[in-house]
Amino acid sequence: MFEQAFRNIDDALRKEAGCATELDYSEQTSWLLFLKYLDGLEQDKADEAALEGKKYTYLLDKPYRWDTWAAPKDPSTGSGQTARIDHNTALSGDDLRDFVDQKLFPYLQKFKARASGPNTIEYKIGEIFGELKNKITSGYNLREIIDQVDELRFRSQTEKHELSALYEEKIKRMGNAGRNGGEYYTPRPLIRAMIRVVNPKLGETIYDGACGSAGFLCEAFDYLRQAHPKRTTAQDKALQERTFYGKEKKSLAYVIGIMNLILHGIEAPNIIHTNTLTENLADIQEKDRYDLVLANPPFGGKERPEVQQNFPIRTGETAFLFLQHFIKILRAGGRGGIVIKNTFLSNTDNASVSLRKHLLESCNLHTVLDCPGGTFQGAGVKTVVLFFEKGRSTRKVWFYQLTPSTSSGQARNLGKTNPLNDDDLAEFVQLQQTFADSPKSWSLDAKDIDPATFDLSVKNPNGGEIVSHRSPQAIMEEIAALDAESAEVLENIKQALSLSTGRC
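Above: the chain's sequence. Below: its structure in token form.
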């Protein structure tokens, strides 16, 4: 229904000198989608108020509403027909660009100051437009993109489902766009497997302190809706307002996460734009805690000494600080599923040893999923997933070594053209329920863990990790796919340079 509109939007953005990557396409699409969504939300609320004989007070003043500046409708449209944009009154060219840059964005930025709190839609409006800028310098391109966005509808569940799927695909492409893009995207099959293991329940709170594009929260929302189709009105209200919580440091990821949750059906997501690690662990109280934590914190980053002072185990490694935060912010009996570099299991520095000791003593680390290389495109590191329950020490750790295979049972390497899928994780999810032993899984008693190093290295007693050698044909196909992608990027850069030269 809407796939062609998304393609047309990307095609128009490729003409822009300031938009050269998938990250730029996602950013610019997001703010326009948000305003279109907001228009539909306000119309629905106005209609509901009218049915009750009440008057609805719009958030936006009339000159800044979508149907005024972006898509004024032709008054001659017949009854029963889809309203068409009145291009005689719609802004275009320099007038449109100047309105967006000089009036619309400054107006929307002021909403944050007047909002009653960070969980309100007013605050989200101000936060989003205080962090982004319009990179579409041609008002004619902007007009073309707006015409496409106006075709999108957010009213029915079918429409929202398709839009969320298309937006997820856009995030996935962004996640595959090199090292920087990868930090925004966790493979959805891995997220779904993690959710099935932690098994969230209605009424529990779910938190991600490094939420990126909000993949964990979106998938958890879908999981709870599908697992409980016969929900009460009170349960639906709790899902909307008091279940999913997130924090995100980076501006672009924050905006994309907000939009992703909105498209999945959460009207005013509880996502805060902040650096989670600046919070002192000593200040976390019981009221601040959550039932579940699901996260893939950034690995490889470094934090300043003043940030490290917020943590009892001081280290510059960002992921290790996040793990301390997640353990602290869980309630007693709370459950966690955290992605982390596999070197965490065996590093011998003081911080790593101390953190492993803290995890094993304060939580029941019951499962470690060892992910193969290539799980995260462009990241260049191997990862594991830690599953634990807070409140009692570890007695036994169950390990599973994930080795994806073909339909014929041959091991296969993961890559951009051969990504992780749900079938790859089906055996893990099944065996994890009973912590069963298999050629890929085994258990380690806590008493057998070295008390000096707390080493948790993945050492499969059934044999080493399977090494699969791809066929020359498979290697050539991946090279060809990567070459085609590189050629497209270079062509976009050439077009951007030619546009820039033409304006000089």
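The beta strands are 206-208, 244-248, 270-273, 290-295, 330-341, 363-370, 383-390, 396-401, 441-445.
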